[in-house]
Amino acid sequence: MTNFKDFNVSEHTLQAISSMGFEEATPIQAKAIPAGLEGKDLIGQAQTGTGKTTAFGIPLVEKVDTTSGNIQGVILAPTRELAVQVAEELNRIGAKKGIFTLPIYGGQDINRQIKALKKRPQIISATPGRLIDHMKRRTIRLNHIHTVVLDEADEMLNMGFIDEIEEILGAIKSEHQTMLFSATMPNKIEALAQKFMNNPVLIRTKTKEMTVKNIDQHYIDVPENQKFDVLSRLLDIQSPELAIVFGRTKKRVDELTEGLKKRGYSAEGIHGDLSQSKRDHVIRLFKEQTIDIMVATDVAARGLDISGVTHVYNFDIPQDPESYVHRIGRTGRAGRKGLSLTLVTPREISHLRAIENVTKTKIERKSVPTYSDVIEGNKQTALDQLREAAESDDIKEYKTMAENLLNDIDSVSLVSAAIKLLTKEPDRTPVHLTSIAPLRVKKSKNNGGNRKRSNNRGYKDRKYKDRNYKDRKPRDRKHQKDQRNKNKKNWGSKGNKS
Ligand SMILES: Nc1ncnc2c1ncn2[C@@H]1O[C@H](COP(=O)(O)OP(=O)(O)OP(=O)(O)O)[C@@H](O)[C@H]1O
Ligand SMILES: [Mg+2]
Q1: Residue 46 backbone phi and psi in degrees, to 5
Q2: Which is the CATH superfamily of the domain at 4-208?
Q3: How close is the Cα of 416 to the center of ligand 1, in Å?
Q4: Biased composition, Basic residues: where in the chain (predicted)?
Q5: Cα 56 to middle of ligand 1, angstroms
Q6: Closest ligand to residue 89's CA
Q7: Which of 21, 249, 287, 406 has a C-alpha 20 to 30 A away from that of 94?
Q8: C-alpha span between 242 and 83 (Å, rounded)
Q9: CATH class for the domain made up of 211-442
């Protein structure tokens, strides 16, 4: 166990960490914070939800010179929501030291950001495309940078941000420390590390599995056309507090959201084609639990830390093992329990096995829940509601009525009737989703579908099909489109592209 006091950090930072409620450092923090404080370049890999933000946040904040109004630290993140979240966490860590971290991301009025930059942030947390915009306008200068962090470095490469990253890193001429963090570190990171890092130390926490143990991982083998009904049944039976449902494409997310709403669930969708204000709105509704289901593409798979997410449903099996790791990692964070459930069509089973091999985890098979399971689930939910209401204070005004009723009817009959009335009938409103072709494992010489894999080649080089491309330059979008067309040929997809 490592206490934050064991690190060589300022009293201000210790106070900030304590007011964040952190007592012991997590394993990645215990290893990465001392190395980071020594100024070493480092690559940090640890499972989802294990505190990597603070692992780079503390060394970064500690290094900031508060007497200078220059931007001294840059964090790059693949998505806008993550850039915002990381800035919030850094503002908490730097609160007592008086350090200001500003998020810089696409989709937000650039003039607003230019105005905010006048407040002289010492750190910026940015998406690559928008940072380059500011560099070109000279509204951000990187000539006093001493620390660079690439959060979710592998994802930024997956998204085709390599040119932007090279441009940004190449523009930092001052002596600086570079830190790369992610739960997954595929080999292609090496080229980036070789080019832009100075003898980086690799910091990994010792675990065989790529996913945390506190997530119960399940899958259900189900034909494509039954997936929506199965999802509805699962939502009824498991009644998650907060759930994220991942779909493969933007269109899929829209259709799923509509379908869920039709059946009476409180759900909203998020993907890269929505306006930033809509995306912010959905995240806000979900965080404050006004809605309890967020339907998302992989744009929400990385880094997002929303407390209270109890369930992750992969409505569509993810494109590759890394994506699986990050998606399910939206639950089971900071030691909490979580459950993930992946719907797998019969032709995608080999894909699931490949995920198990790469992540070194067993994903437990569950059978398709039946209609009577749903009824039982709904009865249980009704019972829980009744119990909760009975324990609350605001039922006093009903007590006289209850006493009168109890004079006529016995208590067991009365409670049975209350449960019956509260038990929701399963909603079977018809919902039609455009069907999509199953994913297939691409076979190569070294990599057969069901064979045990010595590496995860065949996945690594794939481009994800649905990402937030909005922060990217047009040229890259075209490149991505070409890539998608190529992929479509490889996988025989029917073109439900992002
Ligand atoms: N030492 C700690 N003690 C308790 N909670 C912590 C500690 N460090 C971080 N946390 C909390 O753990 C949660 C997950 O942290 P964080 O988002 O940094 O994880 P991560 O490793 O970056 O995950 P991901 O790979 O999904 O990005 C956050 O809510 C954070 O506040
Ligand atoms: Mg993170």
Answers
A1: -155, 160
A2: P-loop containing nucleotide triphosphate hydrolases (3.40.50.300)
A3: 44
A4: 440-455, 475-498
A5: 11
A6: 1
A7: 287
A8: 22
A9: alpha beta
